[in-house]
Amino acid sequence: MSSFKSSSGFSPGALFGIALLLPQQLFGAEQPAQPSLQSDSQAPQSSVPQASTSSVPQASKSDKYGYLEGPRDYLSGKVTRFANNIDRFFGGDRYYQESNQSVIQFDLTKQNGYASDGDRMIKLGGRVNLRLPETEGRLHMLLESTPENNITDEPTPNLDLGTKGSTLTNKVAVPGSVGVAVRYQATEENFWHFNTDWGVKFPLPPRPFVRSMGSFSAPLGEWRMKTMESVYWFNTLGAGETTQVDLERKLSEPVMLRATSISTWLNNTQNFDMRQDFSVYHTLDDRAALLYQASAIGITNPQHQMTDLFVLMLYRYRMQMQWLFFEISPQLHFPRERQYRASPAINLHLEMLLDDSR
Prior knowledge:
Elements: H1 12-30, H2 49-61, H3 69-90, H4 93-98, E1 103-113, E2 122-131, E3 139-145, E4 167-169, E5 172-174, E6 178-188, E7 192-202, E8 207-220, E9 223-234, E10 238-252, E11 255-266, E12 271-283, E13 288-299, E14 305-320, E15 324-335, E16 343-355
Parallel strand pairs: 2-5
Antiparallel strand pairs: 1-2, 1-16, 2-3, 3-6, 4-5, 6-7, 7-8, 8-9, 9-10, 10-11, 11-12, 12-13, 13-14, 14-15, 15-16
């Protein structure tokens, strides 16, 4: 999510040229094999009978990477498509950041118990990702409340990114900043993704920020591994970097297991924020799904220590057509600041999620 360039060294023009040449080579390799489809009576009349026999090794040459087709089909069909549908239903940051279509999200969140710290306000948030026409999905316009929040799917609590600078209006906590950005995006569906954002934050005076994110996924037997690397700079946070690794496995038709490891480093604090999540997604039907999650959060500065352990269950229900969702999430935290005593909490969340398919 910040300004780093792809290390592959290939320009878009070079990649486009390779994409054009490969189909021609494959077509040329298979074309000589057509004489072998002739009848036996016609074969002796051919003036170049050796052409058909020489075409055999050429055809096999085009299949020398055929052993990759199995893992690719497995990744695309059994794991990736299912995981993408889960992320799309839950509308999380994974879907927002990697979708190549227009996405609009607005939400109201009410926190009670430990997580609210006595704050009974309703928090308002939203973000818009608009795919620009005539750019083949490579350019997007972004409008986000508190863009620092969009570093990972769930920012570590000790960063407290969502409440800094907020103002209270009619018992609704309005974000203290709004970001406007232009995104360049390149992606190959189901395998790799890259985007870079250049933007400014308001209110005046405008303050620039930059983010860049790259991800890659690959099958590991019955699992899929997805790695994501983000670098960014904000005036409130300074330079930072986030590494995220997901391991996913489809346990059954409605159930998926995901293990997520996140490490965030901020130059201003010279500290690593570490997070480990174990999540089980259970699709009940086309309108409802459950999430069970256990998480551990820690820091490295001034010393290595666990700051919070918690478990939660989240129920998400599609209320109206495919765009209005309600969530309720009871949680049990064991924070260090309370000597790891059990501290219950519950979150209520109302979200409007719109994209090209809704």
